Amino acid sequence: MDSLGVNFTAMFGYSEKTFEDMYELHERLREQFPIHLFVNKDHNEEDWNWVGSLQDLKHDYMFDSALTLDGPYGLKIVVGKHLCELWHVSRWHHFQFELETRIFLRRVCLHLSDFFGTPLYIPEIHDCVGYLFDGCTMEQLKSDLFDKFGPAQHVNLIEQTSLHDYNHYFYDDFKDVAYFTADSC
Question: Sign of dihedral through CA atoms 140, 69, 44, 89?
């Protein structure tokens, strides 16, 4: 698959298990994660919204063990019992090589890390959302990724990978948080 067809994803570990806990995430995100406060764009986008009615969501949780939140600026969150996937319309190569895109997505992940812990950045081609729907934990996902690709690399090394090489995944410890949360971006 060429780079034009592979989107950005980030996977987070998540431990809240009840439908009520997951459903409340919507309000917590709206209150504690107002995306327009750290995005240098006019806030003319929709806020976070569940995909489906309350009854549909209960059904989806019972049978699929996952719920989907659509967010502003092309963001989507799929929350399972143990994993959470952040998806964005940006292509993987934009995250790799365009600093502005990488800073935006890392800022989103930094704020989400308050809810979910630190992320792994993984090209969508690896279909990690399947782990989410299968009820896997972050440890199971990390173990499988390690077996396939070796250890995760720090996100600051991402530009050293080649455009069509998807055999890497990246962790983020946000130690350079002062740099990429500056208002200059």
Answer: positive
Q: Which of 98-106's residues contact partners 24+ apart within 8 Å by CB, and which partners?
A: 100/185, 102/155, 102/158, 103/180, 103/185, 104/39, 104/185, 105/8, 105/10, 106/155, 106/172, 106/174, 106/180
Residue 124 · residue 86 · CB < 8 Å = no
CA distances from 94 to 33, 58, 129, 154 (A): 24, 36, 21, 17
DSSP 72-101: STTEEEEEESSEEEEEEEEEHHHHHH-HHH
What are φ and ψ of residue 52, in 5° steps?
A: 115, 165
Cβ atoms within 10 Å of 90's Cβ, excluding its own: 18
The pTM score is 0.85
Which contacts of 42-47 are long-range, i.e. CB under 8 A and separated by 24 or more positions?
43/72, 45/72, 45/73, 46/70, 46/71, 46/72, 47/71, 47/72
CB atoms under 10 Å from CB of 31, counted, come to: 8
Rounded to 10°, the helix 54-64/19-32 angle is 120
- Give the model confidence (pLDDT) of 111-168 as tens digits: 888 888 899 999 998 889 899 988 899 999 999 999 999 999 999 888 888 767 788 8
Residue with tokens 């996902």, as numbered in its chain: 141
